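Notebook B, p. 112. Complex prediction, attempt 2.
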Amino acid sequence: QKEVEQDPGPLSVPEGAIVSLNCTYSNSAFQYFMWYRQYSRKGPELLMYTYSSGNKEDGRFTAQVDKSSKYISLFIRDSQPSDSATYLCAIIYSSASKIIFGSGTRLSIRP
Amino acid sequence: NAGVTQTPKFQVLKTGQSMTLQCAQDMNHEYMSWYRQDPGMGLRLIHYSVGAGITDQGEVPNGYNVSRSTTEDFPLRLLSAAPSQTSVYFCASRGTSDTQYFGPGTRLTVL
């Protein structure tokens, strides 16, 4: 079993829709949870970062962590064509440890 | 700050050739790592380093060597290139904030 599972998509939604991206993880020792966005032919860039259960908002983006279910989500409100990218979840045990990435979900927002 | 830089951006090799992918960061980060990204496989960790003079293997280290003689540089060496090493390679660095910054990537094709 992979440590982090992520549906690869592709996911296609119309502009303005709410997007939900999800990952599950297997080890309850993971402490830090991140979402990266990767545009085509570019390196991943950090989008959201959290270490606690609950919600964290940043503009149109909300990261949600449910440690009891080992489930993390990224919600995008009022989605825009510029949000079209691959989104990767990532988790780590601690500051000194390796980052484990999900396989990424390819998202396309239709104008 | 230039962030994380990688050279070259593109490279074509013949089977059996060797080469070095260069990576440098100017953020004084202790933690650096190399990933390869293949379709459907997400980011897989090749090697990482927690500081100058210290390196360790990641998930897929075979066929690759690294060294870390300075904090700034973390080159990745392919000893004898194989078609299975055709991939996009990303270098990343991380400071104490847990935020990992990625370079723009090197697209490698091995014929």
